[in-house]
Q: What sequence folds into this?
């Protein structure tokens, strides 16, 4: 890759921004259109399953207004900065490197920020945290298609995005918007996960489709997007999330954990297929221009 | 196990640049993933900056006598041209302008407008 040395005519310009997250092989955005579909639950558990394979994994909670990582992972300490580099050291638990607004702000204090501040904090999390070398960085995005999503799709070299939805139409409408946003900015959608897909009663074994069923799979077929799997409703998922012990560790043999493992396996297949077909974008050698 | 019926490819058919090359001091060559080649003069690209400020300026009537600042009087040249995510390039110009984000779609449309797009 050629590097550009600014000549005399370049004096008005600002230097190109440093390459963010250059030590990360795969950056996966976990997103949804609507809040409350279990995006953070899926993100945390996917990160844990990926780490179980022996991979080095980071988890970045990019939800500045409503960070849930500290509670779900069971850690709430302030990160410290390395005095030599000035970079924040990510916290570590369950074999994951972690960063969240929840580590910095008080849990009882609302973050009341306009978009530029959100942009600044997210770019800080990407550029001023010593993530080191990672096989996977899972980014748990806030719901919607706003400032945070725009910042991340413009500045992070995303490998792809995972869309989490619940089965009912009201969630799918917004999931499609999220999906279209990624397509518009040329980020591959690695697949759709249908969360809260069904519930199997412990007592009678009967299956209940509380929020309907199959909407995620249908959407994936209509849109030509991979379907990564369906995760059932399970009180152990909620309990694990509230106790800082994600379900894949607290109840590893539960149907929800098995489903999340299948989602992770399918995700890895898609990541490999995507990485094989996507060379880095070319850069321009400006030597000789302007002389 | 992976359900092959529903595991379609995550890749997409969007056209992306595969080569970005200066063609002498005045022109930029982009070779696209579908084989198309687009040549732009830097002046044309600067003139068609897609940022809100430049689009507004372009719609205003031009004054009869243009008074240029010294940095505006020199030929437009890029200071840097960096990818924005996976869908655009950000060009910093030698006149100090930095706010234009040239999406691939915009560049392809400009190539048709300028009329020097080449087939291969």
A:
């Amino acid at each position: 890759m050629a590097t550009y040395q600014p000549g005399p005519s370049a004096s008005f310009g600002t230097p190109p921004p440093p390459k963010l997250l250059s030590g990360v092989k795969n950056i996966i955005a976990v997103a949804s259109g609507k809040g409350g579909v279990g995006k953070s639950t899926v993100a945390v558990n996917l990160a844990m399953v990926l780490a179980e394979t022996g991979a080095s994994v980071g988890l970045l909670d990019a939800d500045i207004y409503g960070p849930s990582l500290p509670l779900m992972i069971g850690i709430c300490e302030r990160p410290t900065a390395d005095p030599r580099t000035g970079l924040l050291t990510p916290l570590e638990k369950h074999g994951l490197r972690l960063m969240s607004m929840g580590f910095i702000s008080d849990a009882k204090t609302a973050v009341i920020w306009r978009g530029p501040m959100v942009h600044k904090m997210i770019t800080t999390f990407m550029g001023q945290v010593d993530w080191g070398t990672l096989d996977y960085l899972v980014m748990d995005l806030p719901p919607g298609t706003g400032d945070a999503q725009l910042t991340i799709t413009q500045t992070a070299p995303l490998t792809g995005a995972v869309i989490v939805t619940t089965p009912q139409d009201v969630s799918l409408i917004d999931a499609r918007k999220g999906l279209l946003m990624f397509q518009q900015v040329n980020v591959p959608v690695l697949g759709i996960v249908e969360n809260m897909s069904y519930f199997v009663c412990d007592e009678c074994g009967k299956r209940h489709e509380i929020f309907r069923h199959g909407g995620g799979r249908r959407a994936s077929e209509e849109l030509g997007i991979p379907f990564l799997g369906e995760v059932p409703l399970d009180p152990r998922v909620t309990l694990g999330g509230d106790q800082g012990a994600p379900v894949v560790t607290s109840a590893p043999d539960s149907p929800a954990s098995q489903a999340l493992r299948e989602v992770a396996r399918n995700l890895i297949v898609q990541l490999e297929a995507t990485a094989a077909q996507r060379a880095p974008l070319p850069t321009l050698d400006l030597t000789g221009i302007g002389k | 196990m992976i359900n092959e019926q529903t595991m379609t490819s995550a890749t997409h058919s969007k056209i992306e640049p595969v080569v970005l090359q200066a063609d002498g001091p005045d022109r930029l060559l982009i070779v696209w993933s579908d084989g198309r080649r687009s040549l732009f003069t830097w002046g044309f690209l600067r003139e068609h900056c897609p940022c809100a400020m430049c689009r507004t300026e372009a719609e205003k009537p031009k004054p009869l006598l243009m008074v240029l600042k010294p940095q505006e009087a020199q030929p437009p040249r890029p200071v840097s041209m960096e990818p924005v995510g996976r869908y655009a390039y950000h060009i910093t110009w030698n006149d100090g302008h930095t706010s234009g984000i040239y999406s691939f779609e915009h560049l392809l449309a400009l190539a048709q407008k300028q009329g020097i797009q080449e087939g291969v």
